[in-house]
């Protein structure tokens, strides 16, 4: 029982790591910054909202699962510095066209778009 809970907690942490990249801007606005209502409103919103503008990048990894019905592809991917992610295994949303090009065991290169916690593969090709 306890082991199951620990395993689940570890999995949750691994999955949520994508949403909390360590090398992005600090979440708290700089308290020492001069007050400028015209510009700080927008800046604070961008820094704190998980739904900020989508980021994109490309990664390399091995497909470990394909779920055509759910439109999802799981990839054991290497680090993706463009979006601040370490190496991990995670599930990505994928269009039917992308799902069709992915097979378990394939080593692939893929383009992705990240918004908040969710990543979507926009293109995939053999590596
Ligand atoms: Cu990831």
CATH fold group: OB fold (Dihydrolipoamide Acetyltransferase, E2P)
Which stretches of 5+ consecutive residues score pLDDT under 50?
Answer: 8-17, 20-27, 37-48
| Gap between N and C termini | 41 Å
Q: Name the beta content range.
A: 25-35%
User: What do we call the CATH homologous superfamily?
Assistant: Copper binding periplasmic protein CusF
> What is the count of structural domains?
1
* Biggest sheet strand line-up: 1-2-3-5-4
Q: Helix amount, in percent?
A: 25-40%
Per CATH, which architecture? Beta Barrel
CATH level 1 name: Mainly Beta
Main beta sheet: 5 strands, mixed, barrel
Instruction: Tell me the series of helices and strands, N- to C-terminal.
Output: HHEEEHEE
Shape: globular
Number of helices: 3
